[in-house]
């Protein structure tokens, strides 16, 4: 493994920054303390900043020996999750119901230190924009920054993202060209029937049985309408109806999520869901209110930029430690919005299995969005090295 020496010397400082952010988690669009820390740290290192994109977003502007015509963006997310931390170690969350359970604290620390190195060495010709983005966890902060002018104020030829990945060993990277993460979408189906006495169902229109029929029929979209080689998930995660055992309610509500790797498959599923819900309800004498909300599109890596990133990773950790055909996940990521506008690549860096956690961690596994999760500080020099090598090699092409 070829790590840049300054990051080994800065390890304790990097860890202190990461753990300070972990101890003070802030939810989407509330990341004022985190944004202040990022901005003040960058300015301390002589890096100009721009604030306010996406509300609490920060962009560090790093110029090389000469600004040049080329520029790239390196992105880290800064928000936490609305969940309770189970860990009790010293840097555990100090705010009930808020936790850095996805490693955004580590992502921020890695990019901060990469920015420091790039600003000090200036071993490139061009401009690097260090993008510290709010509200990844369901708030679409990437799109909000774009709507506020990210790519018009800071034009760039490519943009890159990185996320820690539990289960992937420390020292390994995972990436694939094309879809690497799924789209995230939520739906709600309200069935409106005619309530009545449970002993006299013939006098009413039962929304519960209608909902059951719809739920069963929706799964035929996956098994009979979707192309067998196109991955998709349709999960009904909630059904709510009724208040008493002898009362047929007036309505029933179902909700859930749909995940796909392509927008074409998503279009098909949304259209068929609406048709199935409406016609099944009509056959039962009921009516439906169908809503479908597209939250995040699929994260789709561009082939040329992915091949470039693979070369960078192999230079640092060797061929055997890079999986360039990693199995994608149906989890979602709002970096997808950036990749829809600018070519780029999103990679995973191994976070290990949890052996790194100090005493005081909870009993659960060290997985993302788990109350016992903690970012692995051993990744800090490796992730920062990757960012630096990516930037330097990009401008050598």
Summarize the structure.
The protein is an alpha/beta fold and 397 residues long.
Structure description:
The protein has 397 residues and is an alpha/beta fold. It has two domains: 5-181 and 298-394, 3-Layer(aba) Sandwich (Aminopeptidase), CATH 3.40.630; 184-296, Alpha-Beta Plaits (2-Layer Sandwich). It is 35% helix and 24% strand. The protein contains eleven helices and 16 strands. The strands form four sheets. It has an eight-stranded mixed β-sheet with strand order 1-2-4-3-5-16-6-15, sandwiched between helices. A four-stranded antiparallel β-sheet has the order 10-12-8-13, with helices on one face. A two-stranded antiparallel ribbon has the order 7-14. Strand 3 (71-77), helix 4 and strand 4 form a beta-alpha-beta unit. The longest helix is centred in the last third of the chain and has 21 residues, at 263-283.
Q: How many discrete structural domains?
A: 2
Shape: elongated
In the predicted model, the low-confidence regions spanning at least 5 consecutive residues are: none
Major β-sheet profile? 8 strands, mixed
- What's the architecture of the largest domain in CATH terms? 3-Layer(aba) Sandwich
Helix fraction by DSSP (H/I, runs of at least 4): 25-40%
Beginning-to-end CA distance, first to last residue? 23 Å
CATH topology name of the largest domain, in short, is Aminopeptidase
Helix-strand pattern: HHHEEEHEHHEEEEEHEEEHEEHEHEH
Provide mean pLDDT, rounded: 97
Strand content: 15-25%
- Category by helix and strand content: alpha/beta
Number of strand elements: 16
Trace the largest sheet across and list its strands.
Answer: 1-2-4-3-5-16-6-15
Task: Count the DSSP helices.
Answer: 11
Task: Specify the oligomeric state.
Answer: single chain
Query: At the fourth CATH level, what is the homologous superfamily of the largest domain?
Result: Zn peptidases
Give the CATH class of the largest domain: Alpha Beta
């Amino acid at each position: 493994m070829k790590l840049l020496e300054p990051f080994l010397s800065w390890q304790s400082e990097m860890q202190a920054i990461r753990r300070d952010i972990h101890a003070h988690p802030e939810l989407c669009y509330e990341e004022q303390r985190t944004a202040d820390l990022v901005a003040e740290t960058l300015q301390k290192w002589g890096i100009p900043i721009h604030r306010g994109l996406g509300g609490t977003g920060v962009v560090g502007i790093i110029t090389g020996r000469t600004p040049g015509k080329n520029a790239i963006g390196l992105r880290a997310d800064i928000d936490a999750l609305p969940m309770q931390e189970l860990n009790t170690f010293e840097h555990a969350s100090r705010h009930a119901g808020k936790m850095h359970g996805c490693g955004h604290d580590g992502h921020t620390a890695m990019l901060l230190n990469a920015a420091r190195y790039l600003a000090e060495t200036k071993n490139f010709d061009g401009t690097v924009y260090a993008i510290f983005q709010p509200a990844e966890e369901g708030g679409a902060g990437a799109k909000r920054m774009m709507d506020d002018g990210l790519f018009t104020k800071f034009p760039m030829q490519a943009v890159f993202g990185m996320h820690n990945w539990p289960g992937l060993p420390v020292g390994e990277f995972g990436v694939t060209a094309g879809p690497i993460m799924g789209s995230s979408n939520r739906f709600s189906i309200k069935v409106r029937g005619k309530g009545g006495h449970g002993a006299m169902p013939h006098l009413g229109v039962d929304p519960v049985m209608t909902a059951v029929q719809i739920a069963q029929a929706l799964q035929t979209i996956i098994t009979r309408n979707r192309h067998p080689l196109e991955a998709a998930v349709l999960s009904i995660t909630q059904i709510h109806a009724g208040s008493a055992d002898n009362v047929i309610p007036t309505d029933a509500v179902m909700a859930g999520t749909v995940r796909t790797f392509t927008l074409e498959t998503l279009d098909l599923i949304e259209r068929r869901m609406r048709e199935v819900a409406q016609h099944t309800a009509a056959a039962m004498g009921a009516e439906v209110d169908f809503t479908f909300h597209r939250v995040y599109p699929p994260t789709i890596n561009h082939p040329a930029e992915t091949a470039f990133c693979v070369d960078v990773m192999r230079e640092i950790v060797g061929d055997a430690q890079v999986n360039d055909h990693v199995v994608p996940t149906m989890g979602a990521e709002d970096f997808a919005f950036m990749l829809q506008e600018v070519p780029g690549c999103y990679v995973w860096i191994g976070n290990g299995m949890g052996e790194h956690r100090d005493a005081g961690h909870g009993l659960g596994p060290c997985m993302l969005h788990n109350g016992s999760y903690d970012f692995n500080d051993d990744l800090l020099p490796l992730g920062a090295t990757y960012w630096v090598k990516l930037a330097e090699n990009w401008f050598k092409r």
